Amino acid sequence: MIEDGAFPPLREGRMILPSVERDMANPSWESAEARILIARLSPWRDVDISTPHLVLFDEIRRSMPEAYVDFAFLPVAADRKALSARGLPWFFGRASKKSPRDFDVVMISNAFALELLNLPYLFSTAGIPVSAAARAKLDGLPAVIAGGSNASAMGSLVLESPGERFPARDALVDGIFFGEGEGAIGLLARLLSGAEDADADGSAPLTMAAPHDRTAAKRWERLDRAASVPGFWPCLLSRGTKRALSPTRPDTVARPLVLNGPSASSARLSITSGCPGYCSFCLEGWDRRPYAEAGLDRLIATARELRRSTGAEDLELYSFNFNTHERIFDLVFELNRIFRRVSFMSQRLDILASTPGLADVERAGGKSSFTLGIEGISSRMRAWFRKGLTDEAIDACLDKTIAPGVKELKLFFIAAGIETDEDIAEFAAFLKRADDKRRVRSPSTRIIASAGYLVRLPFTPLQYAAYSFDRAALDALGRRLGAACEEAGIEFRLASEPIECFVDQALSLGGDAAHRWLAALPATGIVYDGSLPEAAWKSLESSLRKEGLLESLGAEKSPDWRPPLSFIAEERDFKTLYGHYLAATRGQDRPSCLGGSCSACGVCADAEQIRSMTGHRI
C-alpha cells in the first residue's frame, strides 16, 4: 500500500481532473466490488488521441458499475526518475495513486511491439514477479492480462513448450486476449476480478464471489474459468484460442470518458473494421478479417451522440482506409454538418484514383493535407508488397492532390532492404515527376517523402521472407532515398531507425529467445520512450546470436514454418499466407477485388464474404 502524499508532482500534467474523476463514477476504494487498472505502455502524451483505454473503461463501467476502474501510463523520463528515487511504481493508478499490486485485475493495452519493452517495468517497479509461473504460487497479486492491436505479435511474452499439453511453460502476463474485445471485456473483467462466477460457457452469472480474494488458488481458478470467453487465452492453463471478432463491428464508444489532454476536443468514429487490401506486409487487414462497414444511418446517429456527450468540435474518422466505405460521399457531407472539422487519414490510392469527385469532396470537407501510402519505391517493390497499385493510378492521385488549396502532400514509402539500383532509379524518376507536377499545378503545395524500414510481421505473407539485420545496408539505403529526394527538391524524412526495426522484428518473431531477453530487461535500464538507445539492439543482438535466432530469422521460411502463437489461426490461413508470399516473390501483384472480380486468392472464408467484396460499390 502506498502512503498518501508519497507521489511527487508529475511534469507531464494531470489527465484526471476533478470533473473527469466525477465522470469516472468510481465508488470509494474500500467499497468497490472490484478494482481494475487499465494500463497503457506509452506516455500519456503519445496515446491521448487513441481510444483503446477508453473502450476498456466503457465496457467495464457498463458491466461493473460498482467497480473502481483506474488508468496507468508510462511516465515520462523525468517522472520515472522522480518515482524511482522514492521507490514508487512507474505504472500506478492516476486517480487512486495505488500500486498495480493493490488491484484485482490489470488490463494492458498494447498498440505496437516496441511498447513491450516497457512491460517488465510494470512488474519490477511494483515488486511483482515478472514470471507468470512464479506469480501463480503467490497470494495477494492481481491477474495481469494483455490485448490490443498488437496481440497477434506478442509472441515474445510467452515461453513456449512445443509438444507439451499446453503451449506455454511461462509468460510475462497471465493471459492474452486476441481480436476485438467489444462485447467480451466486461464479462472478462467480472470473471477475472471475482465480482461474479459464471456458467461454463461464460454466458450467465451464478453467484457472487468473495470480493478481492487474490489468493493464488482463487486467481488460478478465475483465469481457468475466463478461458470460456472467446478470444481469451490464460497462458499457463489452456491449449490456446482463436481470434475473436466483435458481433457489432465496427464499434465506437458513443459516450467516451474525456480525459484532460491535447485531444480532449476531438472525437473518433469507427466507420470500418479490417482492410480489403491484404498487402503482403500489413498485419491489420489479415488480423481483422473479414472487412466490414457500419451503415450510414448508424454512423450518423453515433456521430450526433458523440457530439452531445463529449462536446467535441473535431471528428476523426477511424478506419484503416476510410475511402473504402460505400457511402463515403454521404458521410463526408453529413458529418461536416455535425462537427466543425472532420479529419480523414489513410485511404486506398486505387480508389482515390478511380472514383470521380472523391478528392474534390475531401477538399471541400476541409482536407488540405493528403497522405499517399505508396509503400513500394518501384513497381517491382509494390508487386512484392502486393499493393495492387499501378503507375497510372499513382499519377492520377498526384494530379488530384497537387492542387491549389492543398498545403501539404505526404508520400509514404517502406524500405525493405532488398531494393536494387533499378528500383532507386525508378524512385528518383517518380520524385522528379511529382516535383514537376507541383511546379506547374500548385507551387505552394509542400511535398514531403518519408520512409520507414520494413518489419516482417507474423500472420502476414512476408513472415516467410528472409530478414537481414545489416544496419550498414539499411543506413546506406536510407541515404540513397534521401539523396534522390534532395536531387528532386523534395523533403525527406526517415520514420524509423534500423535498430528500432531490428528490435521490433525480434519481438514479433523471436519467440523464446526474445522472451528471455525481455524478462531480464529491467536490469539493463532500457526503456522505449519514442526512441531506443543503442544499447537495446546491442544487448538483444548478443542474446539472439547466442541462441542461434539471427540465422533462423535470416533464412527464408518453409511452408510448414509457424510463428509464435500460431494456435490463434486456422491451418487454412497459413496455406493462404504462403500462397500470397509465393505470388509476391514471383512479382505477381494483387489487384483489389473490392468492387471487382474474385481472384480466388483464399482470403475469404465463404461465398458470403466473396459476395460482400466483389459486390461492393462506392
In short:
By secondary structure, this protein is an alpha/beta fold. It is built from 23 helices and 17 strands.
Detailed description of the structure:
The protein is of the alpha/beta class and 618 residues long. 36% of the residues lie in helices and 13% in strands. The chain has helices at 18-24, 44-47, 52-63, 77-85, 119-124, 132-135, 185-193, 216-226, 283-287, 296-310, 328-338, 349-354, 358-364, 379-384, 391-401, 421-441, 471-488, 498-509, 511-519, 534-546, 549-553, 571-585, 607-614, and strands at 35-40, 68-72, 105-109, 143-147, 158-160, 168-171, 175-177, 232-234, 266-270, 272-273, 292-293, 314-318, 341-344, 369-375, 408-415, 446-453, 491-494. Strands 2-1-3-4-7-8 form a six-stranded mixed beta sheet, covered by helices on one side. A four-stranded parallel beta sheet has the order 14-15-16-17, covered by helices on one side. Strands 9-12-13 form a three-stranded parallel beta sheet, covered by helices on one side. It is globular.
Relevant terms:
single chain, six-stranded mixed sheet, 36% helix, 17 strands, globular, 23 helices, four-stranded parallel sheet
